[in-house]
User: Fold this.
Amino acid sequence: MNDETLIAFEGLTKVYGEGSAMVRALAGVDLIIRRGEFVAIMGPSGSGKSTAMNILGCLDTPSSGRYLFAGVDVTRLDRTQRALLRRNYLGFVFQGYNLLARTSAVENVELPLVYRGMPRAERRRRADEALHLVGLAGREHHKPSELSGGQQQRVAIARAIVADPHVLLADEPTGNLDTARSREIMDLLKRLNAERGLTIIMVTHEPGMAEFAHRTLRFVDGRIETPLMAETV
Amino acid sequence: MLWEALKLAIQSVSRNPLRSVLTLLGIVIGVAAVIAMVTIGDGTTRKVEADLSKLGSNMLVARPGRNVFGPGGNSDSRAFKERDVAALRNGLSHVRAIAPVSSRAATIVSGAQNYSTTVNGTDSDFFIAQDWDFESGRPFSEGEVRSGSAVCVIGQTIKTVLFGPLDPLGERLRIGNVSCSVVGVLTGKGQSAMGTDQDNTVIIPLRAFQRRISGSTNISTLYIAVAEKEQITEVQAMAERILREQRRVVPGQDDDFSVRDMTQIISAMTSTTSLMTALLGAVAAVSLLVGGIGVMNIMLVSVTERTREIGIRLAIGALEGQVLLQFLVEAFVLALLGGVIGIALGLAIAGLAAYGMQIPFAPSASIIALSFAFSGAIGVVFGFFPARRAARLDPIEALRHE
Ligand SMILES: Nc1ncnc2c1ncn2[C@@H]1O[C@H](COP(=O)(O)OP(=O)(O)OP(=O)(O)O)[C@@H](O)[C@H]1O
Ligand SMILES: [Mg+2]
Assistant:
């Protein structure tokens, strides 16, 4: 295993249901992602992209195979240890925005810090900083319902990066946005990747968006189609 | 974190004020019932105490029988006799008056009027011991006491009922078939603590009572008025020693009489309210159980409604324990709110009752604090199951929830 290797799947499978209702969402996936990479995941609907992302994000556990994060076998961790891993190393941007309604942008962004027990003043400072970074300065006290789709998506990104994660997992971050808005988001991700060395794994349906990444993994029927390590940009 | 949880809890409770209040009805009713009943009970006790202390806080009362003033007392022991009174008068110091009393209910007749009253056979010390003043006339003379003359002193009620506006002094009235002449009229005292009319009384010399009414030399009660309040325990101990000697109670044997002061009598009487306390406890337990189940129910609803929110929180780094804490605090705040409303309602009811019943309004800080703490505890106990359910949610499932 390479020194730079941050994430590795080894023969990972995920099976839902039993008997005739059984679905193989992941049918033996091997992948390696290095620190600082920006990887796009593409593939038809139902090919297992979100399933893989959930496992990557320690939100879900595989049926078999190994998932190594910085050399640690995540499949052996218990629920609390996975929660701690998620909290300390991972940021997640969900397929829907999944912001708390009735809660202002800045409060949404500072939520991960609340659970880390950070003092209020510092929390607020870092949340403001993150919102500034995603270009939402001045919108801190708007509720999600008072923000556009692109703005909500940027709040979700701010929330994902506010705690300085090592890896940003983004499941269709531009799914509901027009091309101009999508490009803004992609520029933002690219900048975070370049300036902060943030490792980014992003699911997208649009080849135009995948072009922002260093390389693209194609999922088909629960497997990766592309060779393991394609050319790095 | 705790502060955040508290903030969230208050937000979530105030988001559905009507639902919160309806949920809390059980706790509100339980707490209000307890607070109201205890407060009214305390007020009544205070009123009784105040009335009794008017009767004389430095008064000792002796009766035959062990523990006669409290529950489970027996009074079939030998009565006191005149030599007991004499022994007390010889042996006790620091005493203002010692009054032997025997009494009986009787119908008194004067002219065409008759009335049922209590006849007390005693001597002139009685008026000193019980602080009676004379409106007109006089107490018994020594001669009348010694010979048991057919004379009597009457209370205000008797005067009004039997004689109206006329001067009763020198008039005759009949007690059963004993005729006596009125030598004194007492000033009015009004109702006693127990609600009986203290002025409905006829007092005759003890010997007259024994000879003509009861037909025995028994004395049922001794009133001992102590000169200074500080001396009361000393006098009480001395009186007990003298009576033990008189009645030949050997050391180690239980006394067959009781000597108590007013505060002891009050506490003996108030201790008979244990049934009331049990009833109160039952009411409280049932309604608090109902209240607790209400809290549990609404918390389960709340957890289901907010499944998605919980999923988000878990996904972005909340630990199980933190989600558990959040919902526990919410249940706690909810139940505490019920407690506060219940306390306010209970005090309001007690205040109205105090006004209506003319008793002092006596809210007790300790019972309020207890109700407050207890309702909070209800929240924690019944909130635990829903909170644990929230904390154990699978983040993926929760996020998919609509
Ligand atoms: N909780 C579940 N229970 C049963 N089957 C599931 C569950 N989650 C996913 N699946 C199945 O697993 C397969 C992969 O689903 P997944 O959500 O990973 O697809 P996807 O690639 O993200 O699709 P899309 O592009 O539409 O988001 C699908 O066939 C789906 O029906
Ligand atoms: Mg998907």
About this structure: Residues A 16-17, 23, 25, 43, 45-51 surround adenosine-5'-triphosphate (ligand 1) (CB under 6 Å). Residues 99-227 of chain B form one domain. Chain B has 15 helices and ten strands. The first helix of chain B runs from residue 2 to 15.
